[in-house]
Write a structure and sequence with these properties.
Number of helices: 11
CATH architecture of the largest domain: Alpha-Beta Barrel
Helix content: 10-25%
CATH class of the largest domain: Alpha Beta
Structural class: alpha+beta
Shape: elongated
């Protein structure tokens, strides 16, 4: 998909206003263009051989393995060639549309399948329910992303990876290594779209009525053809064994309630505008399961990082415990995190095992005061406050020490205050106190969480942190199954502070098994 698009998140007013980027306009056809195009597509359909059907199961080959018969490229036909039985996309931007005789190249309910191999740094995609367009990025239909390692050009960094329903339900983890064949399967039945990368379900989306589109107004299920994308001259992608099976008007399978998949327009705009919407502070507790986390991702598009707690007073206090936890939360779509608890945590675990997590975070909610009294700030009975101003100075000193010395990538629950002081947050978190902790985080490149559950830090803190060069993450720190929402506070802070996708941090894309 396009590399360079602006990202501006509007206020959650009508969906037509919640648009941060819109498709580039398509040049209008003249009568001459229309007639020439119609004749060309008709001749292509006549010349194309009838697709081979696999009689036993109804599959039809869309690509004969030898030629581009039945396919029509738009602005740069030379970007597509057939080499060794595969369609090779390699060259300037262009799209290759199926225009063959099968169903008049109009598909509604179907199963599509192709084997794909992407070279390093390649970006491509498969469109469905689309239509021929002379030039530019396609305005009609949905795209399933093919991108294992392309990062974007200039100031743009592409976050959407292979298996994403582009800009609607994004996948942020790399699922398939470059230079490796995989099978992409797309199924559309009525309003339901499922995507598999090999056997992994990456998208299970039901299009709601009047679904917010985040700016892509042409992304609506209906009917249309397929198109393969050649993204740019540096993206070399191979397609083979491209086939389709018509499901007919009575496609079988469960039909979930579309209203369960409707999300606020402002959240839809984040997905469309390349924000890495990943709740990196999710805990499997209070009855929440890994399956629940994956269902949330399918319904809302919010990806997840699952964190385990390690430290004194917690079930995990050694490497063996971390090994077990890593296995329990392992899933290709989910990031794995260690939350260090207390100030001793980094001495309990070996660097080698810690490095197997995608990222590590901690907070400043557990520390000892100058009299040696251990405090956990969320437990009122353990908090000792003789003088609120002195307590704040202590909290800032302890926070700075944590940010300066502990091996973390994210500071979570930032600026949390105990219940006795929470109502005085704006008074006690002075500009100077905010500056000191922000400088410590920025100096070591530690991202700062925007916490949805506690609704911290404040907009004033975020503005000051952004000006200092800080980067941010989405996080909930849920207490159970019932407090995982739509990241409403994060969305509010993004809007109020004018944050862009580039202000957010994601873990590294590689991890040790």
């Amino acid at each position: 998909m396009p590399k360079n698009r602006s990202a501006r998140i509007p206020r959650a007013t009508p969906p037509s206003k919640a648009v941060a980027m819109t498709p580039k306009p398509v040049a209008p056809f003249t009568h001459t263009h229309t007639l020439a195009l119609a004749i060309g597509l008709l001749l292509a359909a006549i010349a194309a051989p009838a697709p081979r059907a696999h009689a036993a199961d109804g599959w039809h080959d869309l690509f004969d393995g030898r030629s581009l018969n039945g396919w029509t490229a738009n602005e740069k036909p030379g970007s597509f060639q057939v080499v060794d039985g595969a369609i090779v996309c390699n060259g300037p931007r262009s799209h290759l549309f199926y225009t063959g005789p099968l169903r008049g190249a109009r598909f509604r309910d179907f199963e599509f399948e192709a084997e794909i191999l992407a070279r390093p740094g390649a970006n491509s995609g498969v469109y469905f329910h689309t239509a021929f367009q002379e030039k530019d990025w396609l305005a009609k239909g949905y795209e399933v992303q093919v991108n294992g390692s392309a990062t974007g050009d200039g100031g743009y960094r592409e976050h959407k990876r292979t298996g994403s329903l582009y800009g609607i339900r994004n996948v942020h983890r790399t699922l398939v290594p470059d230079d490796q064949w995989f099978t992409l399967r797309i199924r559309v039945a009525d309003k339901r779209v499922t995507v598999h990368v090999d056997d992994l379900l990456t998208v299970d989306y039901v299009e709601p009525n009047d679904a917010p589109d985040g700016g892509y107004r042409g992304r609506r299920l209906g009917e249309g053809t397929f198109a393969l994308q050649c993204h740019d001259p540096g993206s070399r992608v191979l397609f083979r064994k491209v086939r389709v099976r018509d499901l007919g008007p009575h496609a079988s399978g469960p039909r979930p309630d579309p209203s369960e998949y409707r999300i606020p327009p402002a959240l839809a705009a984040l997905h469309a505008n390349n924000f890495p919407v990943v709740d990196l502070h999710t805990h499997l507790k209070g009855g929440l399961t890994l399956d629940d986390v994956l269902r949330r991702q399918h319904r809302t598009g919010i990806n997840a990082g699952i964190a385990v707690n390690g430290g004194l007073g917690f079930p995990i206090t050694n490497d063996a415990g971390l090994d077990r936890a890593l296995a329990e939360i392992d899933h290709p779509l989910v990031y794995r995190a260690l939350q260090g608890e207390g100030r001793e945590w980094s001495r309990l675990f070996s660097p080698e095992v810690i490095a197997r997590f995608d990222y590590v975070f901690t907070d400043a909610m557990t520390f000892s005061d100058d009299q040696g009294r251990r405090m956990r700030l969320w437990i009122p009975e353990e908090v000792h406050i003789d003088d609120p101003q002195a307590f704040m100075d202590l909290l800032v000193r302890r926070t700075v020490a944590i940010l300066e010395t502990e091996p973390i990538q994210v500071w979570v629950n930032p600026t949390f205050l105990p219940a006795a002081l929470a109502s005085r947050y704006d008074e006690l978190w002075t500009e100077d106190r905010m500056r000191r902790v922000i400088e410590a985080a920025v100096k070591r490149g530690i991202a700062i969480e925007i916490n949805d559950r506690f609704r911290i830090p404040s907009a004033a803190f975020v503005r000051q942190a952004r000006q200092a060069g800080a980067r941010f993450t989405f996080g909930t720190n849920n207490g159970g199954r019932d407090d995982l929402g739509n990241l409403d506070y994060c969305v509010t802070i993004i809007r109020e502070c004018g944050l862009k996708w580039s202000d957010f941090w994601l873990p590294g894309r590689n991890r040790t098994p």
